[in-house]
Design a protein that fits this description.
By secondary structure, the protein is α+β, with helices and mostly antiparallel strands. The chain has 17 helices and 39 strands. The strands form nine sheets. The protein has an eight-stranded antiparallel beta sheet. A hairpin with a 2-residue loop joins strand 24 (about 495-500) and strand 25 (about 505-515). Helix 4 (about 90-95) runs antiparallel to helix 5 (about 105-115), helix 7 (about 140-150) crosses helix 8 and helix 12 runs antiparallel to helix 13 (about 420-430).
Length: about 675
């Protein structure tokens, strides 16, 4: 077996590979840019080599720098992870020339399947059902619009070398096709160093289902079931599960066998994924083959018991697969939630900064797993993908896996940046997700106006109020224990309070039942609140209400708390009856008027300004482009107006809410 491997990647996937290598007794080498000098993968590896400045095109995807790191450390093999160089044939060739093993497929398979245009042609020749489209090279934006019209709108404009939603746009008319082509081409060049674009028919109401394949160098190839990846935003997966709640056994078998046949056609070995679009009648169409380890591979590992990273390493070393197709059994259900540094309350725009608090839920063998590449106090950089962690749950049934995920999300503590934990929690409770009736349009259809937080049922609001009231009594009693109080003037909190939440005020009575148990009477009912697992100062409250667990995140604010649970966040004020009466008379402080300003919605780099001072702009007109987390975001005018001042210029690095331009 290999003695030392280098991981040509960063973040959670580098940490994931290091864990398996350590289990196998293999030494590891990390590589890092200036921005990742203190990163978790650098700390975990046995050795680490600096490879350059923060931008990936000056560090992580520069083949010569990776090869130099290999020479310095004497690594015998390289695991590329996903993204970066994982599907670059030139990298695999460079490794082969240096007699270093590539922990991935052969060069021929990468060239055939890693290029989306070539792979679709090969799939069609092999009799695989493919989506109609144009696989040739596209000259310019006008050519793109002409092709899109011939294919028939809507169309998907995609980067040939793309992945992770980068370089991908949906167009519904000629104007969107022209703009989408330009943006996709630019993103593809920046992210992959390859700006080739192709166009295919966009299947409406589709489900995104993929098959995991695994092959060795001796002609053996198997499939390990499917993953449902339909919960996507901007073509980037957010929640995945295995198996799919939609497939029947016959379709699963057909898709699996077709995937294996395609893999064998290119002599594939290592782990790979064949992606399909599946319509409402379970007709499936080949989308692409990813010749690497997928981000969402943990859900397959949880339901099959197969460590895919270990198998990749063993295959690269020349070993035979120890499992055959008949040995693959799908056991239970697994769900993965991708935790992103994206603010769902700002239309999921990227967020950067320091993780002032990062406390994942406790990992439980098989039931709860968290793959991450960050730590508390670490920094989320604007230079790389916004993923923070992949939280996975397993259950004997889909319902059990969802419930396990709900509890794990409730116990995940993240502060210092915007993140999508509230959104993930809301999806877990969404009736449509729970039913399994999902498509790739789920987020667009269910949150057309964006995400504004989960709604609270009346009973849940009552329970939250009761927990807040019990916490308040604990804090008030602690305040009464401060030393130095004048004799006879000690503070003794009463039992009667007023809880105010979302504009509603309700009287409550709180009494101590002993051993951190409290009786709270609210709306005529008395609830028993168990706070045995909480102490003042803890953000996480593992409370129980009438014996039912209710894990909450609580932050102290003036006169109360901000409480987060199941995707909902509420300010809960606890006041004495007299103070509550007076508070109702206080005027509300209004936010400043920014209606005549264009504010930067996320920390990012200004790529271009599309207007000049004095220009009249129309509603929906592009004003500027801001790049963040490898994505280019076009900011548009919300209404008709005249540009009075431009406060930024291309190349400026802006903070969130920085003023870009003003209007008359």
């Amino acid at each position: 077996m290999f003695k030392k491997i280098l991981i040509a990647n960063r973040g959670e996937i580098a940490c994931r590979v290091i864990k398996t290598a350590r289990k196998m007794g293999i030494a590891t080498v990390a590589v890092y840019s200036d921005a990742d000098r203190d990163a978790l993968h650098v700390q975990m590896a046995d050795e680490a080599v600096h490879i350059g400045p923060p931008p990936a095109n000056q560090s992580y995807i520069v083949i010569d720098k990776i090869m130099e790191a290999i020479r310095q450390t004497g690594a015998e093999a390289v695991h590329p992870g996903y993204g970066f160089l994982s599907e670059r044939a030139e990298f695999a060739e460079a490794l082969a020339a240096a007699n270093v093993a590539f922990i991935g497929p052969p060069v021929g398979a990468i060239e055939a399947m890693g290029d989306k245009i070539t792979s679709k042609k090969l799939a069609a020749e092999a009799g695989v059902s493919t989506v109609p489209g144009y696989m040739g090279l596209i000259d310019d934006a006008e050519h793109a619009a002409k092709i899109a019209g011939e294919v028939g709108y809507p169309v998907m404009i995609k980067a040939s070398a793309g992945g992770g939603g980068k370089g991908m746009r949906i167009a519904w008319n000629d104007d969107e096709a022209r703009e989408g082509f330009a943006l996709s081409k630019s993103e593809a060049a920046n992210s992959f160093g390859d700006d080739r674009i192709f166009i295919e028919k966009f299947v409406t109401q589709p489900r995104h289902i993929e098959i995991q394949v695994l092959g060795d160098k001796h002609g053996n190839c198997i499939y390990l079931g499917e993953r449902e990846c339909s919960i996507q935003r901007r073509n980037q997966k957010v929640i995945e599960e295995a198996p799919s709640p939609f497939l029947d056994e016959a379709t699963r078998k057909a898709m699996g066998e077709q995937s294996v046949a395609l893999a064998k056609a290119v002599d594939y070995c290592s782990a790979g994924t064949v992606e399909f679009i599946v319509d409402g009648d379970r007709n499936f169409y080949f989308l692409e083959m990813n010749t690497r380890l997928q981000v969402e591979h943990p859900v397959t590992e949880l339901i099959t018991g197969v460590d895919l990273v270990e198998q990749m390493i063993r295959v690269a070393y020349g070993e035979h697969l120890e499992i055959q197709q008949d040995d693959v059994k799908l056991d239970g259900w697994a769900i993965e939630s991708r935790l992103y540094a994206e603010d769902p309350f700002r239309n999921f725009l990227p967020s950067i900064g320091r993780l002032t608090r990062y406390r994942p839920p406790q990992e439980i063998e098989r039931r709860v797993r968290n793959d991450t590449g960050v730590y508390e106090g670490g920094e989320i950089s604007r230079f790389y993908d916004p993923m923070i962690a992949k939280l996975c749950s397993w259950g004997a049934t889909r319902e059990a896996a969802i419930e396990e995920m709900r509890g794990a999300l409730d116990r995940f503590e993240v502060d210092g940046i915007g993140h999508n934990l509230p959104f993930l929690s809301a999806v877990m409770d969404h009736p449509r997700f729970v039913s399994g009736n999902i498509t790739t349009a789920f987020i667009e259809e269910e949150y057309p106006e964006g995400f504004e937080g989960a709604a609270l049922a009346d009973t849940d609001a009552t329970r939250l109020s009761a927990v807040a009231a019990a916490c308040h009594l604990v804090r008030q009693r602690r305040a009464g224990q401060v030393s130095g109080a004048m004799e006879g003037r000690e503070y003794k909190p009463g039992a009667d309070w007023v809880v105010q939440m979302s504009g509603d005020s309700r009287p409550v009575t709180v009494t101590d039942a002993g051993d951190w148990l409290f009786k709270v009477t609210i709306d005529g009912a008395t609830l028993t609140i168990d706070l045995t697992k909480w102490r003042p100062g803890d953000v996480m409250i593992d409370a129980a209400v009438d014996g039912v667990p209710m894990p909450l995140k609580v932050t102290r604010i003036t006169d109360g708390y901000r409480i987060a649970w199941r995707g909902a966040s509420r300010k809960v004020f606890i006041r004495s009856p007299r103070v509550a009466e007076l508070a109702a008379l206080m005027p509300e402080k209004l936010p400043p008027d920014t209606s005549k300003m264009l504010l930067c919605p996320m920390p990012g780099l200004v790529m271009s300004i599309a207007v000049a001072e004095g220009d009249e702009v129309q509603e929906g007109q592009a004003l500027c482009t801001v790049e963040a987390m490898k994505m280019e975001n076009v900011l548009r005018a919300e209404r008709k107006g005249v540009v009075s001042a431009i406060k930024a210029e291309p190349g400026d690095s802006l903070a969130v809410d920085a003023v870009i331009m003003e209007f008359e």
